[in-house]
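Q: Convert this sequence to structure tokens.
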Amino acid sequence: MHTHGVTQIGTAEQAAEALRPLAGPLAFFLFALGIIGTGLLAVPVLAGSAAYAVAEIFGWEGSLELPARSAPGFYLTVGAATLAGLGAALTPLDPIRMLFWSAVVNGVVAVPLMVAMMVAVTSRTIMGKFAASRALMIGGWSATMLMAVVVAAMLATSVGLGFDDAG
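A:
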């Protein structure tokens, strides 16, 4: 698409239009089909994972293998997460912008999660004989530090503390 001059996409309409050189008059149909297909795959996975996390936090019985009457909190969470996704889709917010900001939030939240994960997997007290090897510790902490540097750089440039050409 870059060879056809498409270098920036800011709206769903622009994303569909970007497919025109490849798909011709079916571009909007293919884009819609892709978005609907992605939603049909993502919504159950996200709602289910949210329900499993909430059930774990509160110590509820929770499984898609259980009948609804055996795990009401779990299934209420699935329903609430599904309705929240539907509600987000019905807002006037630009879906491309929502995707962008969800990626930004995920990147920022990843750093403390990676630190917590590394603390846990390197602890012999927690992991016992399954604690991470020296090579895995080096790789894991390196990835964590790299992620922290990238997030710090993003935050610094977004608040005007970025480096300019003058040095």
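The first helix runs from residue 12 to 18.
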